[in-house]
Amino acid sequence: MSAPVVAPVSPPPQPARRPLPPVLRFDNVTLGYDRHPAVHHLHLQIAPGALTAIVGPNGAGKSTLLKAAAGLIRPLDGVIQRGVPARRIAYLPQAAALDNSFPLTVYDLVAMGLWERCGLFGRIGRRHAPRIAEALRAVGLTGLESRPIGALSGGQLQRALFARLLLQDAALILLDEPFNALDAATVADLTALIHRWRDEGRTVLAALHDLELVRASFPQTLLLARELIAHGPTDVALTEANLARARRMNEAPDPHAAPCVRAA
């Protein structure tokens, strides 16, 4: 007598995964200084793990947007929602905003990335040395631990600042023109580090001028010209039509423009 045929049991249907909330959300946000707007009525969401370039003409509001994302300036209007706590946001300003005359060694500068874990008055001691050494190795600065930061080249200083970012262990990393005036080897090494952060699930936003680098290394682009021109896959955002529109929008800003307010 043949064995009865047993129908295979289908696994129960799995519930659909809910999309993760955005790391950053700008709801009709206007940004500026002294009540004069630099970025108008911005609606924007940045998904977790996104690797996004912010591009646009000079004066388009890129640095202003990053400062607002970091919580350094408040919007003139609208609401910014952050999906990560402030302690897990890392912000690297432009090199021109950094004072490398302060008497610090490379080791001390990099170790500052541990302040959030140790507290401002916490002691960074021997137990942290392996992590600091690993961060220095990752950016190619092994052997320069005792060098004063004022004696570093521009590329070496930027490598040290990236090592500090490594130790911050941030979920959201904001970079303002991180590659200005750097040699090609340094740009390649630091871009590889940014890709490592992306692979670890971190969210990275970087203001950049080099469109070829953006096309080659950043899958998402936000094109800004005092308002949002385009946001999405880089090849879709950086069309000639969008770039031309960004140039037109940025050509004649009015320094005496009235403050922007939310429409009633």
UniProtKB/TrEMBL annotation:
Full protein name: Zinc ABC transporter ATP-binding protein AztA
Source organism of this protein record: Camelimonas fluminis
InterPro entries with a match to the protein in the record: AAA+_ATPase, ABC_transporter-like_ATP-bd, ABC_transporter-like_CS, AztA-like, Metal_Ion_Import_ABC, P-loop_NTPase
A Gene Ontology molecular function term of the record: ATP binding
SMART domains named in the record: AAA
Region feature (Disordered): 1-20
PANTHER family according to UniProt: IRON TRANSPORT SYSTEM ATP-BINDING PROTEIN HI_0361-RELATED (PTHR42734:SF5), METAL TRANSPORT SYSTEM ATP-BINDING PROTEIN TM_0124-RELATED (PTHR42734)
PROSITE patterns cross-referenced by the UniProt entry: ABC_TRANSPORTER_1 (PS00211), ABC_TRANSPORTER_2 (PS50893)
Pfam entry (one): ABC_tran
Feature: compositional bias, Pro residues: 9-20
Domain ABC transporter: 24-251
Protein family: Belongs to the ABC transporter superfamily.
Underlying gene: aztA
UniProt keyword terms in alphabetical order: ATP-binding, Ion transport, Nucleotide-binding, Transport, Zinc, Zinc transport
The organism's place on the tree of life at top rank: Bacteria
